[in-house]
Write a structure and sequence with these properties.
The protein is an alpha+beta fold. The protein folds into three domains: 118 residues, no CATH class; 76 residues, no CATH class; 55 residues, no CATH class. The chain is built from eleven helices and six strands. Strands 3-6-4-5 form a four-stranded antiparallel beta sheet.
Length: 275
Amino acid sequence: MDLPLAPIAFAANTIASGIAAYTDWKTGYIFDWITYPLIGLGIILSILNGQWIGIALGIGIYAIGYFAYKQGKLGGGDIKLLAGMAVVQPIYQGQLFVLSVLLVACIVACVGLCIQYVGSYLLSKPKINWKEPRKRLGFGMVIALIVFLAYSFDQGIFSPIQAIVLLLAVGMGILFYMLEDEIKVHAFLKRIPLEQVEDDELLAAEHLSHEEKQKLGKDIPALIDRGDIARFRHAGMHTIPVYRDLPKFAPFLFAGVLVVYVFPGVLSAFIPVIA
């Protein structure tokens, strides 16, 4: 990016991600008045700079993110924020900016969410069946992670600090994965009246009764829209199970933006330099 445009990209991504983190934390939403101007600014910067990689990245991120959104894995505002940041700042210090931000955000999220939700769940003193297939797979993943990090450290691929950070973040992520089903029930599962269902509510389909599943058939949505509410009513349902108060991801994206801008190259061992 040409020097005159670099401060604009820095300010735009930092301010937009910061505001998005605040609104997501307070309301659960990342509003269009945050993301659309960011995307528009990115398009203008791309035109002024004569580079189209940012627009291409933004389109790619939106396409992939939309699939994740429809599966209930990522919020629509998060996707537009990521796309906007990619358009505004495609490359930073020779690396894909949004990939660096996303990696840092995932590392911080793995640690933070594991401490919060796994800690809260374990403090409730549950009876955990560690012999379940998901738990056994998790143990196997931990062993594979330790072997991989030991080999990488021995070969000089990772520094001691990088290896410790990876072990901590990925290890906590694996622990969260092992206990995910129990945590979702403990922290997020609620059965609410249809009148209280909001747009893009995440349906806890696995907690529908057998009778409810038979009434709805095979086409059971992950995200609920107005048409789905009409279907539920037609099926004689008055309440449905949903996941609410899910973790907010924008604060972690904001942390990723700050880390990548303040400590450029911090992820050089994980992300190849392309320019």
